[in-house]
Design a protein that fits this description.
The structure is a homodimer.
Chain A: E1 3-7, H1 11-21, E2 26-30, H2 34-42, E3 55-60, H3 67-77, E4 80-85, H4 91-99, E5 109-112, E6 132-136, H5 143-155, E7 159-162, H6 165-189, H7 195-198, H8 203-209, H9 216-225, H10 227-254, H11 261-275, H12 281-286
Parallel strand pairs in A: 1-2, 1-3, 3-4, 6-7
Antiparallel strand pairs in A: 5-6
Helix pairs in contact in A: 3-4, 6-10, 10-11
Chain lengths: 289, 289
């Protein structure tokens, strides 16, 4: 890869530029707001200009709802040979891309997993280092586009995870979208507690609810775009919670005559599930609060 | 306070001993396992011996199910003028204490909020510094006992929070017990995800599920002891989750014709609830994983 066009000079776009610059890739920064592109150039993320000839890849990092029209526009301009984006929900995006009549052979839609936290984070060359980065090629995707996207991910220091769009959206409902809502609902319950109750909060509660600090508008957009899979997760989750609650009520009524079978199972399966996402040391230092 | 007897030389007992020794309080360490008491003495937590005359306070730090009989035994021995314990559920404890025929005037049941995490942590003199410590006096509690318990908490560096037993148990169901189960259920769901799904896990999921690493046996004991209030919390929570899930299904069916009113509300209330437990810098450094 020699050159990349980055469309959208925000946190992700600017970080992609910085990451690629480490490897000497020539990067071009394009933004509807020319000032944003110039600011990214000042950070060293690339040149604030349309590439003079088609770049190897264009990385569309505009907000999710704008990806399809912006992609169509740049395919028409011939900005690059291949295209990818970074939006978090893929089934809806593929529908929108079809509606816009985009070329599908040159597209591999992608989604880096980064932890942005609540505050306004700075673009960083190492934002993607060691992180997963989903790629969702379709039956129409050409080999050139797929290999170009794989190279982009590798140059950004991330690890490619290939899935189809439906599997991707179910996966992020499981590992990100539903857990975010679970955290929000747990945090919302604190509004019903009196002051002395809330003063007894410890680290466990702070961990469970931390992600609920995330921007509500941004999360509402993500969750509605992936509404079906998130609803499935929440409903399954609620059924499990109610089954444990039922057993706890039996225990409360009967003293210790009822054995906490479901409860013990939930706690043990929780330990086992948690073992699947064993934390790397680096994750801790990058949490923002 | 000149002297304290610590009954149970585990993490909490040993840390109480270390905290009190900072202030020159003479501490006596008593444990069914004499080796545990001697090990705590070797750490500097006090003298591995029954106090020669009644101590100002006895701090019962044995496992929850043993508190009432151990309290009765030490009240009979005259180990101290006042008594407290550190068990996490208070309504059941007060029932057990009544059944054992304990003296209630000299008792203030307590519960420090500490974050022990998953690993085997070391006793520390500063384990309680700046932390809340619930105290649940009853109508029978004498002033001497209450003031002695307040002084214990202050000398341990913690902040007393006074509540009655029912309010305490509802409070910890809200801020600790139900959130723990919520985290366990969220972590358990990962067992149903395939490998590429789990690889997309990020920091949000790791935060939400971190507390689920906790010891299942210990948590099953805590949660069954507080079964009624925890069931109330879980049920209310499940109803909220189902309401959001219903709206998400309507959105999935209708495209964007349905506005995400409940979803936005849940996300915004989550931000507001989270603001009630604003994190102190120290909390971050003490999380274990």
């Amino acid at each position: 890869m020699r050159s990349a066009a980055i469309v959208g000079a925000g946190l992700i776009g600017c970080s992609v530029g910085l990451a690629l610059r480490r490897h000497g890739v020539t990067t071009y920064l394009i933004d509807a707001d020319p000032e944003a592109a110039r600011a990214a150039e000042a950070r060293g993320a690339g040149l604030a200009a349309q590439p003079p000839r088609p770049a190897d890849i264009a990385v569309i990092t505009v907000p999710p709802g704008q990806v399809a029209p912006v992609l169509a526009e740049h395919q028409k301009l011939g900005t690059a040979h291949c295209y990818t984006d970074v939006s978090g929900v893929k089934v809806r995006l593929h529908q929108e891309v079809l509606e816009q009549g985009c070329d599908l052979t040159s597209l591999v839609s992608g989604a880096p997993v980064v932890d942005i936290g609540a505050g306004p984070p700075e673009p960083r060359a190492d934002l993607f280092d060691g992180r997963p980065w989903a790629l969702t090629p379709t039956d129409f995707t050409g080999n050139l586009a797929l290999n170009c996207a794989l190279e982009l991910v590798a140059l950004c220091g991330a690890v490619s995870v290939l899935l189809d769009a439906e599997a991707h959206d179910r996966a992020v409902a499981l590992v990100s979208h539903a857990p975010h809502l679970i955290a929000s609902l747990a945090a919302a319950r604190l509004l019903g507690g009196d002051e002395s109750a809330v003063r007894l909060a410890g680290q466990g509660l702070r961990d469970v609810t931390r992600t609920a600090d995330g921007n509500p508008e941004r999360w509402a957009e993500i969750l509605t775009a992936n509404a079906g899979p998130v609803a499935d997760q929440l409903d399954d989750w609620a059924v499990q919670a109610q089954a444990v609650a039922r057993e706890l009520r039996d225990i409360a009524r009967s003293g210790d005559a009822v054995r906490p079978v479901r409860l013990r199972e939930a706690l043990s399966l929780g330990v086992a599930g948690r073992a699947r996402i064993r934390e790397r040391p680096r994750d801790r230092s990058t949490t923002t609060d």
